[in-house]
Amino acid sequence: MNLGNLTLSGRLIVAPLAGISDLPFRLMARRCGAALVCSEMVSAHGLVYDNRSTVALLKTDPEERPFSVQLFGASPEVMGRAAALLSDRPIDVLDINMGCPVKKVVSRGAGASLLRDLPLARAVIRAVVRNTQLPVTVKMRAGWSRDAVVAPELALMAQDEGVSGVVIHGRTARQFFSGSVDFEYITRVCESVSIPVIGNGDVTNLEQAAHMMQETGCQAVMIGRGALGRPWVFSQGRPALTPVERLSIIDDHLALMQEHLSVHEALVAARKHVGWYVRGMRGAAGFRKSLYEMKSTEEIRGQTSLFFSLEVPGPS
Ligand SMILES: Cc1cc2nc3c(=O)[nH]c(=O)nc-3n(C[C@H](O)[C@H](O)[C@H](O)COP(=O)(O)O)c2cc1C
Fold it and tell me: Ligand 1: residues within 6 Å at CB?
């Protein structure tokens, strides 16, 4: 599949997840087979005003490319300036957030709020496309509410403005994460445009991803929550992993945290991700609790190995 002049090696993409999609998480997704990795949403204002914590979100590594950076904002001028700034960096795709329903974002007119103002959405898209040579994508929800579904129209508008692909999460903003994804929303976007459509929502394995592509006609699938503690979801055609293989992935992930994050950031991330990795295992609840008493990422590495050794059949 192509996004503009960029050819992707597969059809599974890791979703942007605020507070989660840091460099180690993206590197793990990529190592496990994700065809494209995405930053969490990055404030265009923060970039233009050189906010340190915003710029820190752009930290990347050649191994994770192709790398998509997602911008959010409601001012065409600021979004255009942010796009121009990003174009000098080692980035492969610029994505525009038109789906986030969170109050902090929507109250500023950004994210899913743009679904309620298509002329402004068009101006934002135009400003970004005109200020970068990179392929641009737009990630959207179906509409603000069930009676205001605009994704097919917005996707067509994006295509007219020179966007290279769209991501559609098959829920409305009002729905947040309730109910289940409606394939009809994705199908209608696919029927509306000729650029690639990436379907999104509730996919947790390869079969579901294939089903979404088959049923809706989307060319690729983006996976978010289904990749938490399960980055191997991107490994096409691999049989179920043994505990030893899973532990080896966790250990790689923890090593990447130690390499790329500050000591404190690594500890916070390690607690969170290991909590997800052990989900479903015997004793997981107790182990998850104990993670908060562990004082270093190194200790978490050791204790996680120990916890897994209880699952691993010993020599008979
Ligand atoms: C914790 C969390 C953070 C998210 N952050 C972002 C974000 O920064 N940008 C964005 O476009 N979507 C964000 N999303 C939405 C996801 O990218 C995705 O569209 C949604 O979770 C549905 O896909 P899934 O069912 O595979 O998780 C977030 C979702 C969650 C649960």
Answer: 15-18, 20, 40-41, 70, 97, 99-100, 139, 169, 200-203, 223-226
